[in-house]
């Protein structure tokens, strides 16, 4: 398993450290870059480690699990993540964008300016007394970050130190272990071997609401039913709503065209556990229309590339049994 160690803005870290100390805690963070370009492609659920820059001694100050990438406007990022962007106001976010982008004027605020966003689930931030020494082999010409194997060398030292500090702080972040063993995965697995931590495994991170949307979007890439690609027309739908106990997990999500999402939530359409699209007879009976949807009857769902992101069958069964209007 590889961890990505990313050069991190000190003010971004300080703000999110304070947010993480609030009673509600911090379930997600937007690690954004002002250029709008994607510069790294970690594996879903892999460690994403925050390292300060030279003036702060290259200290490791926290970590989380990489969940998705999104290219968002500054305003979209603020509307979706708010203070989880690492600043108290949209004006503060914009001030930092201007600070890093040469030639970009401070005024007026440009809400459509694109930023590149690595969306991090379950972030943990260390107070200064728990900072970890950065990689001994870090080169001064590394601008954005570098990948490290967590089983050997500096990657192993840093990763295990991160886990030790997280255990001291007591967060509920699923990082190592079998996600199928419990609904609340533990941070690490104790073993009887000399190593304190079990063998690293990628697991499903528990996502925040904002990250859920873009993680589902990344996993599917198109409407699961119609194959529509235009992202402004698509929604990340929960199969089991959060209000009914459904989690923010990709396997509890479907990327659907907005009109189909509305019909799904109201029970006029569903997806069977064998991934077939179904339309209720009530749509025609109540509204005397719906031909465009009946033409999609029995279409097989477009599924994500990775099987762990497939819609969970028991949640599809629950939607079909409790929400779908059969008659």
Relevant terms:
327 residues, six-stranded mixed β-sheet, alpha+beta, elongated
Task: Please outline the helices and strands.
Blueprint: E1 2-8, H1 10-20, E2 28-33, E3 47-52, E4 60-73, H2 74-81, H3 90-100, E5 114-125, E6 145-149, H4 153-169, H5 209-220, E7 234-238, E8 253-257, H6 258-266, E9 269-271, E10 277-279, H7 282-287, H8 291-294, H9 313-322
Parallel strand pairs: 1-3
Antiparallel strand pairs: 1-6, 2-5, 3-4, 4-5, 7-8, 9-10
Can you tell me about this structure?
The chain has 327 residues and is of the alpha+beta class. It contains nine helices and ten strands. The chain has a six-stranded mixed β-sheet. Strands 7-8 form a two-stranded antiparallel ribbon. A two-stranded antiparallel ribbon has the order 9-10. The longest helix has 17 residues, at 153-169. The chain has helices at 10-20, 74-81, 90-100, 153-169, 209-220, 258-266, 282-287, 291-294, 313-322, and strands spanning 2-8, 28-33, 47-52, 60-73, 114-125, 145-149, 234-238, 253-257, 269-271, 277-279. The radius of gyration is 22 Å and the shape is elongated.
Task: Describe, in short, the structure shown.
The protein has 327 residues and is an alpha+beta fold. 27% of the residues lie in helices and 20% in strands.
- In helices, the fraction of residues equals 25-40%
Radius of gyration: 22 Å
Report on the biggest sheet.
Answer: 6 strands, mixed
Mean pLDDT: 90
Please count the beta strands (DSSP E, at least 2 residues each): 10
Strand order of the largest sheet: 2-5-4-3-1-6
